[in-house]
Amino acid sequence: MTPKPYKVAAVQIAPVFLDRERTLEKALRYLDEAAAAGAKLVVFPEALIPGYPDWVWSVPPREPLMDELYGELLENSVEIPGDVTRRLCDAAREKKVFIVMGVNERNTEASGGSLYNTLLFINPDGELVGRHRKLIPTGGERLMWGQGDGSTLQVYDTPIGKLSGLICWENYMPLARYAMYAWGSRLHVASTWDRGEVWLATVRHIAKEGQLFVINCCQALHRNDIPDSAGHKKYYPADRQWINGGDSAIVNPDGKFIAGPLHDAEGILYAEIVSKDLSGPRWMLDVAGHYARPDVFQLHIQREAKAMISERAWRDPLAGTESRSNSVRPKAQAAATAKPTPAKKRPRKAK
After folding, report:
1. pLDDT tens string 184-239
2. Residue 168 annotated in active site
3. Which domain holds residue 322?
C-alpha cells in the first residue's frame, strides 16, 4: 500500500508593520488558503508577529528613534499564553493543521519589558505544545531580544515523524543542529530573516547532513510595506525596493530544492512528503546513528529553565512563622533576631 503524502507549506509574507492584530489576521487568511490546499503543516517566518526589527542594522543605538521603535515593538508583542496564541490554537484545531509561527514574545514571567525571538508550535488538536526562544540573537538583534535557554529546545510529533525548529543563524550552530538530529527530527523548520545564495546553501547542507526535509521560511518585505511615518525608512537606499526578497524554499534529504526558492514575492510554497523518503537514505548517512562516534564525541545539553527570580523560605524567629523571600536574609538581621543559646547547666558533684 502506497503511503499517503504529507503536505507541508511555507508561507512567505510581510507583516503589517508593527501591528499585532492586523498581522495575525493576515497570517490566518494565508493559513486558510494553505489548509484549503491540503497542507497539514504550515510554517510562518521568523518574528512575523508583529515584524522583524530590521532597523537594528541601520539606526544608531543612541538615537531617540530606537526608543520609539522598541516601544512600538514591545506594545505589539505577543504574550504566551494570550489572545494571539488562543486564536492560533483555535485555527489549528478548526483546520486540523500543525502551525509553526514566529513571534516577538514579551517576558511576562518577569519584568514584562523585554522580548524574545520565539517560535510557537501548535498541533492539530489546537494545543500549544511548545515554544522555542532563540538561544543567541545575532549582532544588532541583541539590542531588541534576550537570550533563550536550553529548556525550550525540543522536537514534536507529527503523523510523518518528529518536527524540529531553529531560528535563523541558530542553524549555523552545529551542536544545536545535532541535538535536533539526535532527538529524531525528520522535518526541520528554519524560520529566518536571512536569504541569498549562502543561506540557501546552508539549508541544503542541513537537509543533507540531517537526512531530513527542511522548510526554510522567510518574510518578503517590500519598501512599501514600511509606512513613510516609520523613522528608520530614510536609512534605506532610495533604489532599494525589496528590503528582504525572501528566498523561502523546501529541501529534501538529498539537499535538493523541491519547492522554491521564492524570490521578491509573497506566496505559499507546497511540497508533498512520503514517509519512505525519510528513512531509506539513512543506510548511507545517519549522523546521530551509525555515522556517529559517541565513544569519541559527546554532547551535553543544559535543559533547565533559567528563572529571573527565585524564592526561598525562612522562619521568622520573632513571629514563629515561615515567610517567603526572594533574597537571602542579611547576616546582620539574622544575628539581631536570633535568640541566645541558653547556657548548659553543670551537673552537681555528689557529696
Report:
1. 999 999 999 999 999 999 999 999 999 999 999 999 999 999 999 999 999 999 99
2. yes
3. 308-338
